[in-house]
């Protein structure tokens, strides 16, 4: 969030819609609510409530993607797949949040046979969720090392910062596959 705020401040003269991807600490909600038009990591009702309240104060709404932990790795954030539909059913109580899709970080592996099931599962979950909330059509999945499989499974958003900008060390690089990050 700190990096996004600095970039937003430096580029205030440009008409940029900011998409924030990654785990959000509750003390950063106020910053995200001010600058973001899209958030790709909603993973709790507590965070939904905090965001909704802050967005109400700002007089804004926010497109959100619900993060699902499709890899089963404890080191990753996101809802357990079994918790998704009950979570989606409760999103209507937050009028400033506009659910637009689901997001996942796949298993970090060079073995495509292990990675692709993460994307397949998210697509299946999206197909179930869209029956409850018709606007949940998006699939934010795939990064520089696995975006081809994500696209084959229906990704509508891929996160390929490393392929575009190259590897770079960041303070939060432990959130991203590889030692140097891919969160751009």
UniProtKB/TrEMBL annotation:
Gene3D superfamilies on file: Alanine racemase
Keyword presence, NADP: no
Protein keywords: Pyridoxal phosphate
Pfam families per UniProt: Ala_racemase_N
Alanine racemase N-terminal domain: residues covered: 19-169
GO function term, MF aspect, one: pyridoxal phosphate binding
Superkingdom of the source species: Bacteria
Alphabetical list of SUPFAM superfamilies matching this protein: PLP-binding barrel (SSF51419)
Keyword Thylakoid: no
CDD domains: PLPDE_III_YBL036c_like (cd00635)
InterPro entries attached to this UniProt entry: Ala_racemase_N, PLP-binding_barrel, PyrdxlP_homeostasis
UniProt similarity note: Belongs to the pyridoxal phosphate-binding protein YggS/PROSC family.
Name under which the protein is recorded: Pyridoxal phosphate enzyme (YggS family)
Organism: Sphingopyxis panaciterrulae
Species classification: Bacteria, Pseudomonadati, Pseudomonadota, Alphaproteobacteria, Sphingomonadales
């Amino acid at each position: 969030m700190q990096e996004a705020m600095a970039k937003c401040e430096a580029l205030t003269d440009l008409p940029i819609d900011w998409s924030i991807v990654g785990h959000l600490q509750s003390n950063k909600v106020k910053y995200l609510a001010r600058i973001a038009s899209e958030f790709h990591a909603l993973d709790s009702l507590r965070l939904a409530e905090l965001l909704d309240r802050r967005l109400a104060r700002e007089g804004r709404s926010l497109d959100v993607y619900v993060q699902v932990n499709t890899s089963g790795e404890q080191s990753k954030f996101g809802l357990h797949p079994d918790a998704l539909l009950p979570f989606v059913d409760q999103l209507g109580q937050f009028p400033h949040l506009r659910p637009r899709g689901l997001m996942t970080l796949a298993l970090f592996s060079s073995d495509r046979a292990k990675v692709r099931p993460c994307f397949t599962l998210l697509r299946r979950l999206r197909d179930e969720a869209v029956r409850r909330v018709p606007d949940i059509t998006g699939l934010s999945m795939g990064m520089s090392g696995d975006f081809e499989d994500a696209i084959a499974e229906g990704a509508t958003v891929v996160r390929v910062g490393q392929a575009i900008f190259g590897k770079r060390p960041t303070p939060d690089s432990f959130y991203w596959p590889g030692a140097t990050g891919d969160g751009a």
